[in-house]
Amino acid sequence: MSNFDCIVIGGGHAGCEAALASARMGLNTLLLTLNLDTIGQLSCNPSMGGIGKSQLIFEVDALGGEIGYATDETGIGFRMLNTKKGPAVWSLRTQVDRKRYRQRMQRVVNTQKNLCIKQEEAAGIIVKNDKAIGVYTKRGAEYFSTAVVVTTGTFLNGLIHIGLHHYPSGRVGEPPSEELSESLKKLSFKLGRLKTGTSPRVNGGTINFSKLVPQYPDSNPYHFSYRTNEFNPPSIPCYITHTNRKTQEVILKNLDRSPLYQGVIKGIGPRYCPSIEDKYVRFKEKESHQVFIEPDGIETDECYLNGLSTSLPEDVQLEILHTVPGLENVEIIRYGYGIEYDFVFPEQVYPTLETKLVKNLYFAGQVLGTSGYEEAAAQGIIAGINAGLRVKKETPFILYRHEAYIGVLIDDLVTKEICEPYRMFTSRVEHRLILRQDNADERLMPYGVKFGLVDNEVYEKIKERTKKVELKLNELKKMKVAPDEINPLLEAHNSTPVSSSTTIFQLLKRPELTYQVIEPIAGRLTSEIQTKVELHAKYDGYIEREYELIDRVKKLEHCKIPATFDYSKVNSLSREAKEKLSKIRPLTLGQASRISGVRSADIICLLVALKSKNKKTIRVFP
Ligand code: FAD
Fold first, then answer.
1. Of 200, 213, 284, 375, which is least packed with CB atoms within 10 Å of its CB?
2. Is residue 152 lining ligand 1, measured as CB closer than 6 Å?
3. DSSP state for residue 34 in the 8-state scheme
4. Ligand 1 in contact with 143 (CB < 6 A)?
5. What's the whole-model pTM score?
6. How far is ligand 1, taken at its centre, from the CA of residue 245, in Å?
């Protein structure tokens, strides 16, 4: 028998962040995982970030997490996406060396103070008086702790499908986790079934690259982490090709061997990330689909075929690839597959990720219905921090929708019904102009410092930077230029000349004028400050309006609902609202307003009922 403050089950992206956060907060932490060698494994494509996801990485980094730093160290081709649309929506993406990423993450967890790692299968949660007090393992060992975090990814009752053949597995080559799933059911957790899939991986030596279009990384790349100093990553291109009518013919003639189309796979897959067979069945008229050939690492020839996820049989997979230009003679090294797995319906957790059924028990990552490394890492750090705060008997930590993409992610999970694996999209985020990747440190680093995960010195530097931007903006608002001074420069950049003197700030608002253009007059800045100054000028007014909106939203967010509130006694609430509110038990009026089926009229009734009870801030967590 051993005692710990916190036990984390699972060494994937959620588990690593949870365990590191807990240990770095000074808690005696145990990480249990099925295989030490697959800690930090990228189960699917070898890439990190991208639109909607890079923001999550920057936010985890600002809170003191590891994913951004590890990505910077092992990235092999960084590209800033969306650059034509202006810095507010820029998103960083990179190919990652799969093996080096795993090794890098293993080195960090192995050397982390306060963190003990064991290769063991957790078979169940030990619960006493509705509180998690530890974990028992398949070999009969018991480990006790104050908090437990479950981050088991696709492993709970995992079932792999290749063609009509299927077998129990958590990920290819790894066993499923069956007993833990049963233990959760016995504790009365409601589990569902989801599905995801991955593409074949091929021997790069058998690709005819001369037929492909290369996509080169940025020559002067950005990085994710505030901790990265010297940044000179390898620059390895991806390649683009396309499927065609022949590919479609192969797929359609083999649908009788597809587990998806023969009803063998019951779990629901992500609509936004369909398999190639799904694409051709659902969008019959579309002849061609794009395929990205992504390098798997520096010291390997293996390539990942992004866009060709499939669970068709092995021989059909090969036939499909041979129809694609550049892949006519390609050899498959690892076949694509589909996987079904149990997940825990996320309405069963609070926004702290602690479960409503069992106190001190937290869930994070794919087990909670999400998909993606970044989504998993984001939940992992929140669960790890909250487990730490619980052990220290401190106030729980919740990020709200107006504060972070992470806030949106978790709020969506706990208020909306999950019908497919959830992934982050920018369209889910109301305050995109405020929640940018470039200001994640300004928004979230104070929390990282508060929890002891980020050095205060680092945050002081961020504050200095913010001050410099403010000073420069004020200077530019006062700096006036006369028409004869500025018009030649405006005309040279196809910008309308001015007829009276104007401020540099006003000019910078023009879409066609970058800071670089007006630099001879406005003065030289570092590229980081220059980007921020330009962004504030371009979005001036919009940003202020956004903050006004947030102030209004905050009022609802601050109106807490007591944990014991009896919705059935509020007669004016609709029946559907009573049912949903009693089931989800939102913590605030803001959260209640986002539950599907709860209407504006219900929120007003609820507000009146709460006011009449005249309870100020009542204990929120039971
Ligand atoms: P994982 O990374 O799966 O880690 C789970 C960890 O739990 C493992 O370390 C495992 O050993 C451990 N574990 C499990 N059970 C136990 C137990 N009982 N005791 C101890 N340890 C245990 N994401 C995308 O964004 N896009 C995609 O296209 C995509 N496709 C995917 C295809 C496949 C086939 C798979 C498997 C995943 C795919 N993903 C995709 C998802 C992505 O890999 C996951 O979202 C991400 O890895 C989830 O991280 P996690 O930490 O929640 O779980």
1. 284
2. yes
3. S
4. no
5. 0.93
6. 34
